[in-house]
Write a structure and sequence with these properties.
Layout: H1 20-30, H2 41-64, H3 69-87, E1 98-99, E2 102-103, H4 104-122, H5 124-127, H6 136-157, H7 160-174, H8 189-198, H9 206-227, H10 230-242, H11 248-264, H12 267-285, H13 289-300, H14 312-321, H15 325-354, H16 367-374, H17 379-389, H18 394-411, H19 419-453, H20 455-474, H21 483-486, H22 488-508, H23 513-523, H24 525-530, H25 535-548, H26 557-566, H27 570-580, H28 582-593, H29 606-628, E3 630-631, E4 633-634, H30 637-651, H31 655-680
Antiparallel strand pairs: 1-2, 3-4
Transmembrane segments: 43-62, 74-90, 102-124, 136-153, 160-182, 202-225, 329-349, 370-389, 432-453, 490-509, 515-533, 540-562, 582-601, 608-632, 638-671
Protein name: C4-dicarboxylate ABC transporter permease
GO molecular function, one term: transmembrane transporter activity
């Protein structure tokens, strides 16, 4: 990993101002999904025009009517996969002539995958009579679609996701040779292609539909909103609100990353954009390099769980669960707040422990000029949220948000968009959507295998049985715990959640969040739901732990990006980021056991909500103090351990455990406060 890039890596923007070009260079360095081939001559202009046309297609259809579903998805996939072959190179370029820097083989792949995608709607009317009995052309086109989709994903994301898809394909074809609960009748290649290509259960299923009708539009909105100044406004507001307090730049990083992440939906984009400003500022006032990078990485990892945009996986979730977007946004609000609260507490306590200052008046922007110059940039976001709240479709909300961005951007004299800026935004917005679009097509194959073989039920049964057996083994050891926790059912649920969380973190080390969520929503979520957890809570649980992989060494992409800016050791930065983001690892267990935290849940009462949320918030703060080693004053290892134990008991949504946690917390806090008071008291006169 490259170290020592420092603030200069982001370019030469004025102090306190976002350098979007520098952030884009950093994002390309640390995000493999944005490492594009360098095109030359007319081909570069042709591909850029195709990207802009793809963005314009999605923008237009969002406002004036989505095409018939099979045509809309096919046009989307044809363009996305073809452009993937033109823009993503192989590690060892094939020999032979090139056109504009693109090998002829890649041109052939692009043409073939586009033809395979468009073939389906062309013969759609005939398929009614031959689904289940594909002809030779159907099988050839389907085979080309499967093979080229896997190759496109391999280029955009590496080998991990294609390898997982290949395992599922092998399971579909050879499942009849497996004994036990995983055994199924199996399918031949013709039947497999029929299911994942000709029906709506595979490549053209829910994942592709979501990217084509929701995700693309919100990615485009985020790019244009940042370009027209909304990201800068968020950073300036965060500086005004939090910069003057101890450890000010770190608190600015937390607040600005929460705000910016709500429109970007990408951990790495959030890290390099806001981090190019906040990380050097944190180092300047005395934070160690690895801690400065970790703060930005931990805060930025919250973008995919923060309303109103969230990440691509959120839109897949509303399709899987068949719920309105507003329901998910309300449910995600409190858990997201808990994550940022946990990071903020540790940042504050670290600043107090080290005696760090806040930002000076000269370093802070002024409130009135900030509002005067930046308020127009908020109009598109307010309009987007308003359209969603009114109950309209997410893509229509994105259409009006993008339209407002364009209008405000062209009219705003302080940060005016030019036609060149708009072209750039449409180009970049489409580039950002290529990898996730290809991944959606690939994981559609996984979903198809699950529906073809019943793998979701089979895997869920295995997980719950393993958890139940383990629970029986450990129950005698924890008989003193409350009955709702120590029961076989309670232990089975806890162990199932632990198993699923571990799988999410391990698989998330090599798979993007959206693809990981889709795979585990198909095979792991049913196991959690079978044990009584509401589907919304189960799916959010999987999403949280999938995102946690961005902070978990050894593959902690957000932490690596932050470490590059900070000039710090990436592994140490990742470990610290994981510690700062511990709320993200504990809060999902809370809403799994007490879904009332999600608000939009059956049986919601304000009393239960307040008790659960307040004890969780106190527990998250206590956990931060225990991990930092500071609460009013420095603590020894014993006090730290006691505080961490008290925190975990408080976070657990159980009345008896919370009372026990308070009983452990109170004396530690009281003793520390008395010690700190004595140190502050003036010495008595002689």
């Amino acid at each position: 990993m490259v170290q020592g890039d420092g603030a200069a890596a982001a370019g030469a923007a004025p102090a306190g101002r976002l350098d979007l070009a520098g952030a884009a260079r950093l994002e390309t360095r640390y995000d493999a999904e944005l490492r594009f081939r360098e095109l030359r001559g007319p081909v570069a202009g042709l591909v850029s025009a195709a990207l802009v046309a793809l963005s314009a297609f999605h923008y237009y259809t969002a406002g004036f009517g989505i095409l018939t579903e099979h045509w809309h998805k096919s046009i989307h996939l044809a363009a996305v996969l073809a452009l993937t072959f033109l823009l993503f190179p192989t590690r060892r370029p094939p020999p032979g002539p090139r056109i504009g820097g693109v090998p002829l083989l890649d041109w052939a792949f692009a043409a073939a995958v586009a033809a395979a995608a468009i073939y389906l709607p062309v013969v759609f009317d005939e398929l009614t009579f031959r689904i289940g009995m594909p002809n030779a052309t159907d099988v050839v086109m389907g085979t080309a679609m499967v093979v080229l989709t896997l190759e496109a994903v391999r280029r955009a994301m590496g080998w991990v996701l294609p390898a997982i898809v290949l395992v599922f394909i092998a399971y579909a074809l050879l499942g009849h040779r497996i004994g036990g609960v995983l055994s199924h009748p199996g399918a031949d290649w013709e039947g497999f292609v029929n299911h994942v290509y000709l029906t709506q259960e595979g490549i053209f299923g829910i994942p592709a539909k979501v990217v084509a009708t929701y995700v693309f539009h919100f990615v485009l909105f985020g790019v244009i909103a940042t370009r027209m100044g909304l990201g800068q406004f968020f950073i300036d507001l965060a500086s005004v609100a939090a910069g003057r307090y101890p450890g000010g730049p770190a608190k600015v990083a937390v607040v600005s990353s929460a705000l910016f992440g709500s429109i970007s939906g990408s951990s790495i984009a959030n890290t390099v954009t806001t981090g190019s400003l906040t990380i050097p500022a944190m180092k300047k006032i005395g934070y160690r390099a690895h801690f400065a990078g970790a703060v930005e990485a931990a805060a930025s990892a919250g973008g995919q769980i923060t309303p109103p945009i969230m990440g691509a996986a959120a839109f897949v979730m509303i399709e899987f669960l068949a719920i309105p977007l507003t329901t998910l946004l309300v449910a995600a609000a409190i858990p997201a707040l808990m994550h940022f609260w946990g990071v903020f507490v540790q940042v504050h306590l670290e600043a107090k422990r080290l005696g760090l200052r806040g930002m000076s008046e000269e370093e802070l922007p002024r409130l009135w000029p900030t509002i005067r110059d930046g308020w127009p940039t908020v109009i598109p976001l307010v309009l987007l949220v308003g359209v969603i709240v009114e109950g309209y479709t997410p893509y229509l909300a994105a259409f009006w948000g993008i339209t407002a961005c364009i209008v405000v951007g062209f009219l705003n004299p302080r940060n005016r968009l030019t036609p060149k800026d708009l072209w750039y935004a449409f180009d970049v917005g489409a580039r950002y959507a290529l990898a996730v679009g290809a991944a959606a097509a690939a994981v559609g194959i996984v979903v198809g295998v699950v529906t073809l073989t019943g793998a979701g039920f089979r895997v869920g049964f295995m997980v719950t049985q393993a958890a139940a057996s383990t629970a029986e083994m450990f129950r005698p050891l924890i008989a003193l715990l409350p009955a709702d926790v120590a029961s076989v059912q309670g232990l089975t649920l806890f162990l199932t959640l632990v198993f699923v969380a571990l799988v999410c973190v391990v698989m998330g080390a090599g798979i993007p969040t959206t693809a990981l969520y889709i795979v585990l929503a198909a095979i792991a979520a049913p196991a959690v739901v079978q044990l009584g957890v509401p589907p919304l809570a189960a799916h959010l649980f999987i999403l949280y732990f999938g995102i946690l992989a961005d902070l978990t060494p050894p593959v902690c992409v957000s932490a690596y990006a932050a470490a590059g800016i900070a000039g710090a050791n990436p592994f140490r930065t990742g470990l610290t980021a994981f510690r700062l983001g511990m709320a993200k690892a504990t809060v999902p267990f809370v809403f799994a056991y007490a879904p009332v935290m999600l608000v939009v849940i059956e049986g919601f009462t304000w009393g239960d909500f307040l008790v659960t949320t307040l004890t969780c918030a106190i527990g998250v703060a206590a956990l931060g103090a225990g991990l930092t080693g500071y609460a009013f004053t420095h603590m020894g290892p014993f006090s730290q351990a006691l505080l961490v134990l008290a925190a975990l008991l408080l976070i657990a949504p159980s009345g008896p455990l919370s009372i026990t946690g308070f009983a452990l917390l109170a004396p530690v806090v009281a003793v520390n406060w008395l010690r700190a008071s004595r140190r502050r008291a003036p010495a008595a006169p002689a």
